């Protein structure tokens, strides 16, 4: 899984999300090495590979293997790229979220964690892929949104956004209904699937069935190497960092919502006049339901 010529390794702030995306498909031990390398301070004073090997309890050959899996020629090149990342991150990115007893510090760190996630995500986002996905979504005859657990709530949120501009979508509350939906899809339809892991088996089965029936697939997930992403026609990556207090899913949710906002605007741009007319109509509903307005 070395980097191909079309997969140029980003420098600076974009490196961390790139490495997180490349972790897909690694063994637990290989992924553990990547996690260790991304911890601030672990590479202080330019440690030699033997020191890293000793700290992790793995062979030097394993570290070199991981460096090459990540797309680097070896550990030295990987270490240099990481040192550049940490230098830039100290100047640009807010501090890491950590446990703290002071309420104001906790609030600040939660906000800072979200900022870090968005800044890193922005550094590697593929704007052209979002534009192409938006065009597909706009032109579709039927638009179905798939997601499990917290991702289903995100689908409900984006359905609400699209309804405001007159772009009708459908979400489903469980995998059984998603599979029924997928069975009825056909060419000209589109599925927007939100899945952080990209591994949820029930969602994968529904997406695979939709794909077999000719629907196009837009996938929001952590890595273009994930199983569900491999089925997609358009992949919008949301590689989020893990945080001690919130975990990875919480930060992924922030990034996914931001990326879906970008997709929403790109869809609205397909016909700005129509989007504005429909927004005025749907916004007026709030006033229609105001106290006394129905009398």
From TrEMBL:
Database matches in Gene3D superfamilies: Glucose-6-phosphate isomerase like protein, domain 1 (3.40.50.10490), Winged helix-like DNA-binding domain superfamily/Winged helix DNA-binding domain (1.10.10.10)
GO biological process: carbohydrate derivative metabolic process
Domain of life: Bacteria
SUPFAM superfamilies: Homeodomain-like, SIS domain
Keyword DNA-binding: yes
SIS domain segment(s): 133-273
InterPro entries, sorted: Homeodomain-like_sf, HTH_RpiR, RpiR-like, RpiR-like_SIS, SIS_dom, SIS_dom_sf, WH-like_DNA-bd_sf
Domain HTH rpiR-type: start-end pairs: 13-89
GO molecular function: carbohydrate derivative binding; DNA binding; DNA-binding transcription factor activity
Keywords: DNA-binding, Transcription, Transcription regulation
NCBIfam families in alphabetical order: PRK11337.1 (NF008458)
PANTHER family per the UniProt record, alphabetical: GLUCOKINASE, HTH-TYPE TRANSCRIPTIONAL REGULATOR HEXR-RELATED
Protein name listed in UniProt: Transcriptional repressor of ribose catabolism RpiR/YebK family
């Amino acid at each position: 899984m070395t980097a191909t010529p079309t997969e140029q390794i980003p420098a600076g702030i974009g490196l961390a999300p790139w490495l997180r995306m490349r972790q897909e498909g690694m063994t637990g031990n290989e992924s553990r090495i990547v996690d260790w390398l991304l911890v601030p301070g672990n590479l202080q004073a330019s440690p030699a590979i033997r020191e890293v090997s000793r700290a992790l309890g793995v062979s030097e050959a394993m570290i070199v293997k991981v460096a090459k899996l990540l797309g680097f020629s070896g550990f030295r090149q990987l270490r240099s790229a990481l040192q550049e990342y940490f230098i830039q991150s100290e100047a640009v990115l807010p501090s890491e979220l950590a446990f703290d007893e002071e309420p104001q510090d906790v609030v600040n760190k939660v906000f800072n964690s979200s900022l870090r996630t968005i800044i890193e995500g922005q550094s590697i986002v593929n704007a052209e892929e979002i534009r192409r996905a938006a065009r597909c979504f706009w032109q579709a005859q039927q638009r179905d949104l798939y997601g499990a657990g917290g991702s289903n709530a995100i689908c409900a949120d984006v359905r609400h956004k699209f309804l405001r501009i007159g772009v009708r979508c459908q979400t489903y509350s469980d995998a059984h209904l998603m599979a029924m939906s997928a069975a009825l899809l056909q060419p000209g339809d589109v599925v927007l699937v939100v899945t952080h892991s990209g591994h949820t088996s029930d969602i994968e089965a529904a997406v695979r069935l939709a794909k077999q029936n000719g629907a196009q697939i837009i996938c929001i997930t952590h890595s273009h190497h994930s199983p569900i992403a491999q089925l997609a026609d358009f992949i919008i990556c949301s590689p989020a960092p893990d945080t001690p207090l919130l975990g990875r899913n919480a930060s992924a949710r922030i990034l996914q919502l931001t990326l879906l906002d970008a997709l929403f605007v790109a869809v609205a741009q397909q016909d700005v006049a129509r989007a504005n007319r429909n927004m005025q109509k749907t916004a007026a509903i709030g006033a229609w339901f105001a106290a006394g307005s129905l009398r």
